[in-house]
Structure prediction request, 738 residues.
Amino acid sequence: MFSEEKLNALIARIGLNNQTFSERQRLMGWQPSDAARLAQAADSLQQHQAEFAQQLQQHFSHFPEAAEQFEQLCPPEYIEARHAEYYQQLLHNPYNDDYVRERVRAGLIHQAIGLNPLWYLGAYRLYLDSMLKTICTDPEQTQLLSSLFKAVFLDMSLTVDSYSAAHHQSLEENQARFTRTMRGANDGIWEWDIASDRLHVSERWLEMLDLTGKEFGEHTSKNWLSRIHPDDLPLVRKAIGKHLSGHSHFLDCEHRIRKKNGDYIWVSLRGFASISEQNEQRLSGSQADISERKEHEQHMSYAAFHDPLTGLANRRQLDKLLHESMQRNQQAGSRETALLFIDLDNFKQVNDNYGHKAGDVLLIEIARRLQQCLRPGDHLGRFGGDEFVVLLDDLACLTDAEHVAQRMLDSLSCALRIDGHLLSVSASIGITVLPHSTPPSELLQAADLALYQAKMAGKAQYAHYTKDMQSAAQELRAKQEALTKGLANKSFKLLYQPIFTIQQDLKHDASNIYAVEALLRWHHNGNDYTPKSFLDLLEDSDEILEVGAWVLKTACTATRQWQLTSIPQLHCSINVSYKQLRSAYLVSLVKAALESSGLEANYLIIEIAEQHLKPNCAQSLANLRELSQLGVQIALDNFGMGHASLGYLKRFPLDILKVDKSLINNTPQDPALKDFGLAVMSLGHSLKLKVIAEGIENPEQLSLLQANNCQLAQGYLLSSPLTAQQFSALISAPAKHA
Prediction:
């Protein structure tokens, strides 16, 4: 029933050898004469031994638990015969190694069936009592010794049970402590007896897979390994083999294992090989569910290479794809590869007008549309903001890149409905071809240069990179650098264009000048540039705020000087850019300029362009309202040709309406435009706003304005923009009639 290895292991655990057995005999007071005395009486007691075996069987039949345990061993008649044989051998045993091995083997068998040691003690007590009656002839002595045996064995039974219970209690406490620890660690425990291919697993191990022991099936390594994901099985086998062969200190690997419902979970498999008492190799360890960690790792890995908003490849992934494509491009037989750099036109206005949430929804939809335009194997990534990059591999010819670019332009030409708003979006695309041995950064720069060219050509189109663009880019960078140093180099200057009152006898002198509009100019490489050619570049940097502050201070100071010398009621009109209008520092800069110059706030006019009025810009509205409370006048510039709602005229604190010059310049040739311009002026008057007409270039236009009660005007007919010195000379000169 039990192997010799297990028997030997138990003997070793008890510590039974010749020396310890002799010590045990000495403790009992055992002498050689005791063995001889028993052997001499064996024959005379044989009949009594057989009778006692029957008596013992009958006695235990009154105790169901004992009877049931004995019946598990073998039939009652066999047990009776074995008892008779055992008790007979007890009298003439050699008490050697064979005797020891046989008694330990009996203990193993009885422990396996759960035989209580109490029945041992009871049987031995009955045996001694029976033999006592046979050996001793004195009834009183026999009864006395029998009572003594009963007391001794009763005491022994309590002692043995207490010792055994305490030992089991300690084992159970240790087991419970271990179980709690492993439960806290949430690990499943397993052990594999390699020689017998027997797998032992804990309840927690089975719980991970939603299985019971029966549902798991045969507890063998084959059944265990069959549940491991096919892609991971070679790795697990390799790790086990490496550890069992002594090439690793521990078994440590991660793999997927199948649950009852067919799903897989990630587990960490750890173990350690050892040799059992039977000199057999076994592998023991734990299994921890690491699915959440793996999911987090996969999420982090995905996030590292993908844009969180659109799910497209991010810069890092694009760089990786670009390197891989360049390596393929160096192989023989490879075909053309192109890079497309895409930038949405005027996307910033969507964020400004409808908020960043609407902008995000728009980007997601645009990403979806662009993705639909690609061929199998092409890659689309979000480079940042409203910029996208497309990598086109394996092109039969370069015109294929143009076809993809055109499909994208066509796809974006359809309006999108975002949060109830119908938005029209276009894009500009730069195209470059991947040459051999060119750094990815230079390829992206080349595509970006082509993109810039497409925007300069009118947007909503694509352009190819050419070598000439590099020199143009260098010129642009030089221009940007010069702009940032404009204030330090004193290359900015102001011109002043007078605004005249035209509803009286018009004279070109101080008496008819209502205000001056300060106009910024940039002197660079011998030329004077208007804001149209450099304002976008200035807006892209924070220099616009510093330049704007300089304009405010310089213009207010000059105006105050002209008030003191010639025109006490002279107003100063200053344009502010979109970035200035949205700046939290605008009001403080205006206050500083007024304080340093001494100009009163009601003589300052702040001009804002019609296209800069945005419905969702709280900062712009707050700035304008605070300036209006200071007494500063607010003028809406270029009104009539933008997209400003008429509601803005009431929402924003406006004082002046400046009619766009296109409504004035073309009135003789376009009667409809003339009527529209007059309607705009009439609208301004009805709202109690001052109206200034821009771009007056001939007497007919001036007469039309005067006939329709327009009070203020400016233009080259009246005066071109002047330097401060020229304007000082103008207001000091004698009057000239217009």
About this structure: The chain has a mean pLDDT of 85. The domain at 4-168 is CATH 1.10.490.10 (Globin-like). The chain has 29 helices and 21 strands. The first strand starts at residue 187 and ends at 193.
